[in-house]
Amino acid sequence: MKLKTKLFGQIFSFRDVREVLAKANEEKSGDILAGIASKSAAERVAAKIVLSELTLEDIYANPAVPYEEDEVTRIIYDNLNQSIFKEIQGWTVAGLREFILSNETGSGEIRRVSRGLTGEMVAAVTKLMTNLDLVYGAGKILVTAHCNTTIGVPGCLGVRLQPNHPTDSPEGILSSIREGLSYGIGDALIGLNPVEDSVASTARSLESIYNYVQEWEIPTQVCVLSHVTTQMKAIEQGAPGDLIFQSLAGTQAGNQSFGINVSILREAREIALKYGRGTGPNVMYFETGQGSELSSGSHHGVDQVTLEARCYGLAKQFAPFLVNTVVGFIGPEYLYDARQVIRAGLEDHFMGKLTGVPMGVDACYTNHMKADQNDIENLAVLLSAAGVNYFMGIPMGDDVMLNYQCTGYHDIATLRQMMGLQPLPAFKQWLEKIGLMENNSLTSRAGDASIFSAKGGAARA
Amino acid sequence: MLEEQIRQIVRAVLDQVQEGGGQQGQLATGTKEQLATEVKPAPESARQAPKANTYAPGDTGDDHDLEDLAAVDLQKEILVPSPADRAALEYFKQTTPARIGVWRSGPRPLTRTLLRFRADHAIAQDAVFKEVSEEILSGFNLVRVQTLVEDKDQYLTRPDLGSRLSGPELEKIRRECPRRPQVQVVIADGLSSKAVEANLADILPALKQGLQVHNLQPGREVFVKFGRVDVMKPIGMTLEAEVVVLLVGERPGLGTSASMSAYLVYKPGPDTVVADYTVVSNIHNGGTPPAEAGAHLADVVNKIYTAKASGVKLAMNQ
User: Fold this and answer.
1) How far is residue B195's CA from residue B191's CA, in Å, rounded to a whole number?
2) What is the CATH number of the domain that holds A212?
3) Do B259 and A403 touch (CB under 8 A)?
């Protein structure tokens, strides 16, 4: 294993694989905050050169966090396909990049090799990719999953309808749902982030959304994103939900700070399979995002791209229906500006797909970042070109509960129309049935939530 | 050659005419849709706009005619030109502050909706960078300290510094606050100075009154400038508080730049993690009003105090 290189006559040498991985990253404020970023542009390229020549075996032998200390490392290593890993262990990281991009390689070949990749390997190749590589590479990889409907279908752009409300008002939540449906939004999921994390209020929101979906016979999935332990109790007690949600981190300590571990996640999946209302087999929903480990002091000196890749490796173990990064939610100390958020969004989507999870992106920003709506519109176009499975859909992109902005109902409708993408098949048929879609386009009724006044929920005066 | 071009143009025009007639119900291209479905009288406000925007040099007297876009009550404004059920849409709008009923041009938002969005984003960004006014803070008997952060820019990129206090600042807290309080209240500017300014005068008395009902004795309140959530740990540890309540300005949303969160923790220590916090968010007049939130917080404090646990551990006990 060679940990040094010569560049412009200067020798650059690195202490270990971890340092190579960190310094090969594109610039991120989070890596600077952690004190592990490259000190100069030249050093960054030198690290990329060294990384490109490492073999997958070198990376395998040097997990970001030791096997003995960390259950995320253990679960990924224990379930790695040994036969496939043995076939590719001699590949360099550069070789892996060129394999993915080659015209001889299709989705099937990449999906197979993916079973022999650890999170660190997925991160490593990502660090050698340009933004267009990430768009092109991800676009080659198809990952579908099925709960009540199928997500990841080629030619489709799914969307989670996120009807958040500042007081969890059931009527207010339904109002945002109606508006979203009228723009063709909600095929991937109708998923609420609740204000109050209690079993009673989780059950109440699940019931009101689920009943509405039943009444209008909407082919989609329903979830309320309280803490996993809260959802487990609610669903075990009979509250109707299709998916169980949880945020993930890429280290055991990071997950501990979220109040979870592998055994809780296993139990959650068992409960979703036993008591959930969905068809399955994919019944879990995970969110991730670069920087969460550093924010809870559980990063072990590892860079945020590598830790993010480990999140996807962890997620994969639970056969999820949805996984998305909430890129841009965490703040400027991890992703400083639009440039870093766009890069991270493309990295995360690519890494998720390469890992083999059905990847979506919450393309978003907060009001204390140097980014605005124009920037995430840019990111959304790039990700649509990259074949992203789904985005979030919010009224005008303004989340009135979580206080951040992401893609709005209009944005999804625009992306679909502009790029020739369709809602997921079953949902599209439903839109046609109720007269909101015709000949692959939204009809003139689109945008009028009051077409959904006929039934469901509203106890109007 | 020329003939072929003319033929192409004629064909294109004919195609357009046919499409315009044959696909009236469609939302396809902007022009087609405008022809087919969107030729409608402009809303009242749009018709008045040119008058309000007329530039008149030297004219200073007529500003009361100007519409303030940011002052428009969005929950009352319906831009859908002819809704299937107007009464229903009015009701939907009342139930949520979300930006619904906004209509579209093609698949894109109307200009008015877009400009209001940009205005609200602008004011939210401004709220992040302002400091809490002296006038507000001097109305309370607060022990005032500052974290290791020196300015707002550093505050945004160095959360580690915003969670720490220097030795002298901790010493000041020890000197001026009673030791081992049952409840220690900490106030921090966080990401919105406006949140502290708008809510403190209502939430603090309500919280203290509620604590009294539960026979819980709070110590003297501490205000932290440039404070992050984790700053409640060193303060709680240094004072050996049983329950620490942090009132902190949330990252501003659009039109909710005055929202406050409360973080509660039982006996914070070096091993305290995020999951140990109990959080009550969205405290502002458009969410949970501050006085109501103060009373609710007192009940939560009592629960934590009785259970000797907070966060996920408290939830599991319930």
Assistant:
1) 9
2) 3.20.20.70
3) yes
